[in-house]
Amino acid sequence: MIDRIKQIEGVGKFLSAKNLGGLKFSEFNLIYGGNTRGKSTLTAIFKSLKLGDKSVIEGRKTFGVSSQKIVIQLANEGEISFSSNKWNNGIKDIIIFDEDFINNNVHLGGQIIYDNQKSLNSIIIGEEGQKLAIEIEQLQSEISKVTANKKKHGNIFTNRFPEAPITLQKFRKLKNIEDIDKEILKVEAQIDDYNNQDNIKSKCNQIENVFSSIPEYSIINLLSKHFKLNKEYVIEHIQKTWNKSENSFNFLQQGFQLLKEEPKDCVFCGQSLNIDALKLLNEYSKLFSKEFIDFQKQISSVINDFNNWNIELAISQIKTIGGMIKINIDIPKDKLIELKNECNNEFNKKLNDLSYSINFQEFEELIKTFEDIKEEYNTQKKSKLKEINIDLKELKSKLSTLQFTKIRYSTTENWESYFEKKDDLDKEFKLLKQKREQKREELEIYGREIYKKNHQTINEVLSNLQADYRLDEFIPLKKIIGKTERIFSLVFYNNHKITLETENSAIPNFKNSLSESDKRVLAFSFFISLLKNNEKLNNKIIILDDPFSSLDKERRRAIIKEIQNISFNSTMSKPKQIIILTHELDFYKWCLIKFPEATALEIQNEGMQDGIKKSTILRTNKELYLESDTRKDLKEIIKLIDNNITPTEIEGLFSKSRKILEDVFTKKYYSHLKEDIKSRKSIRTFTETLKSNNVNQFETQNKFSQIINLCDDLNIELHNNELKNEGENGINVLQDFIKCLEII
């Protein structure tokens, strides 16, 4: 408990308030300070003392000073001092209601923001809840560190394999394989074969095109056919009769076509055709027949194709293209060329004589040799075009797995140690997470309970303070992430809900539905509820800075009653100490009446020093504050008379005398003077009315004349009287005034 503030230097208006040691505080304290006298500075000192925050004091350094000093005496605990810009100790058990409490915890500028709710949530859950919250934060901090270590440890894998197609978990589960290099080579060969399949197929197609150009056995059937024609006989006739035997047969063919169907005479000379001529014509008929011509064309086409077949090129293509895909065939080139030449000679004989019977021995050997070559080719082709039952993607995946398996069990990389450390980090992370979730559950259960208590208490206080609204929902923050959570909502007249966030003037909301008085009542209700539900209230020092500020006058009594409930309620613990600061004079006076045992102090001006206004703290004369103006004026007049002091401003004293007389007549004879009072009559009229009604001997000449004479001397209803009572006459009039009060 604060026992006294012994010294304040260099803080705001308290330039040098040194002689405060006699101002002893009690359990309940009232401090009055008019505007600009230093009340807010005194609150700031209490706040700095609570927080141990030197900046609160430094920011209020008196103009022109270089150092600050505060000395506070605690009851049975020694001194706490602020010097050299720091506190030597602090009092964490101070709880303060002021503008900062409102701005930080309820609303800022009439707007409820997320930070208000977060701060209020922290206060509501109290020390026990904050302890849990701190433990959760500490666990979360530890989790973050372990998470960072897990990530750092995991980076060893990702940095080792930046584009790995395998996860760390799969990498760990890989089974060791004996002779893994052999398995890798096997799959690589499969992939190589797979990749070469298209090229092998393409080259094989080229080789097979070459094979398709090789003559086939089937031409033997055609070339074995004969056409019986005595061509020598025709040739002999041509040589014997033509000037140039190389001339075209067209001449003969045309002449032959001009003959009659059964010719007897020659178409050229007209002579009869003999037996030899008819024989010759028979040979011509064969020579120029369609059958002969077609046969000749077929034979000529086949033999010419064979003659044009470039066997050397075919052999070269087979060897060259085959070599590209590692198909190597032993081809007897010279033998094949010789066989081809022999076949050419034999086939050409057929061209000259369609009745010639070709010897196909060389041709058959030639074709048989190429068939052997083709068979060897097919054998080697089959070994190259392997049947692969899995696709390339699967082969590559298998190879990748084998390669990672080789690394996984490599003797140069200690992956077992890596995984042991990973397991340790995972276990630590899991354990910390379990502890955090357990604490979160504890905080949630505790939070729901404390919120439930405060919900009821807050609404009770709102009711006592005559508010038209109540808390509707009241729930703790859940995740403390994001900026949208709100812990309470409001409802007017138990029916009309208002939103807290929007500033749309067309929608009922916190800003446009609550007056400034309503908003302060809400904040005050939160504060009072927090006190009522604080299990350690008896250890707390409560500072109330202007609790009545901005409130309607009719709520003054309710505010004081709530403070009384906190201070004197026997059913609950009460604060160790309460300090109320206010600049509201009426509120201060009412508190003096309602809390008669309170220590009453006042912040007063102490003049100027070096152009700076000074303030100090003095003990309050309660009687002066509680006296009516009538009593104060009467005391002043009696003091002048008793000390025989000649007044300098007599007219002012006469005015106070008239007011005192009116006050006395009004209070004592109200029932007799109701109409006069209503008509705003003067003392003279009051006296005449009481005389005419025979009230309290006003009808006697002595009493009546004394009061009327006093009215004359005080210029009551003699506004045009230019005569004045000054000096000693004035004192005499005031003496008569005191006497008349006694007889009235």
What can you tell me about this protein's structure?
Among the domains are: about 1-95 and about 535-625, 3-Layer(aba) Sandwich (Rossmann fold); about 190-385, no CATH class; about 625-744. Helix 17 crosses helix 19 (about 515-530) and helix 23 packs across helix 24 (about 650-670). The protein has about 750 residues and is of the alpha/beta class. The protein is rod-shaped, with a radius of gyration of 64 Å. The strands form three sheets. The chain has a six-stranded mixed β-sheet with strand order 7-11-12-3-13-14, sandwiched between helices. The protein contains 28 helices and 14 strands.
What order do the helices and strands come in, and which of them pair?
Blueprint: E1 2-11, E2 14-17, E3 28-33, H1 39-51, H2 54-58, E4 69-74, E5 78-83, E6 86-87, E7 94-97, H3 99-105, H4 114-124, H5 126-160, H6 168-173, H7 180-212, H8 218-223, H9 231-241, H10 250-258, H11 275-287, H12 290-308, H13 311-324, H14 333-352, H15 361-384, H16 392-408, H17 415-464, E8 469-474, E9 488-492, E10 496-498, H18 510-513, H19 516-532, E11 541-545, H20 556-568, E12 577-582, H21 585-594, E13 599-609, E14 612-619, H22 622-626, H23 629-642, H24 650-668, H25 670-678, H26 683-692, H27 701-713, H28 727-743
